[in-house]
Amino acid sequence: MKIIISPARTMKSDLDSLPYSGLPKYLEQSKEILSWLRTRNYDQLHQLWWNCSERLARINYQRIKGMDLITNLTPAILAFHGLQYQYIGAGVMTDQQLKYLQEHLRILSGFYGILRPFDGITLYRLGMGDKATVNHTKSLYEFWGDRLYQDLFKDNHLVVNLASNEYSKAIRPFLKRNDKMITCVFGEMVDGKIKQKATLAKMARGNMVRFLTEIGAEKVADLKKFSTGGYRFRTDLSTEDTFYFELVKA
């Protein structure tokens, strides 16, 4: 089983809590992206980071100019600091749980492609959906091509999709008939349908990663046991490739 999640826009450097283990697999591609970013001026990068404040844009512009991909690195699972990662809570996991996380969890990234939790990374700002035209490609989806899909499915794994649409779009177009990818949807019942809200979904995805880690999940049936935070699996709404979890109000 492989579990895929999105990165977070919010990042932090942490050189002390846990050591990183190795460098990202697609570091050479990251270097190509960094070289392209360095050809952009501030205004072009601020436009690329369309939802970024002036203050953050200045910080990230300076980061790109001095970015070092080899030293002063933070494990990916600690570098990303959004809601999902706070609910995963890797900093308080046991050694056995961290081992499971390293083996089973994969973080999709516009800059790094695909990350293991303890790959050492630097702080960056680049979403998969940002309009970066690296090496004359039209988008980062085109730049990465089927490389990330091939990596995930090289051993015919079951893939549990806890990533946002922005990132799952890097995998979904390449799926073949016999590939098994289950997307989990977390939400409340509205007019007979499960409606997903972004903030609650991020929290639920983090809780799901933690739950699967705690039980050492290896098979599809393990997903259906998730109930953290008041969710329950809806057998009647779910299909082979989409599992729905309803938030039941107390």
Automatic annotation (TrEMBL):
Signal peptide annotation: none
One Pfam short name: H2O2_YaaD
Domain of life: Bacteria
InterPro entries: YaaA
Family of the protein in this entry: Belongs to the UPF0246 family.
NCBIfam families referenced in this protein's UniProt entry, alphabetically: PRK02101.1-4
Protein name, entry field: UPF0246 protein H9564_04150
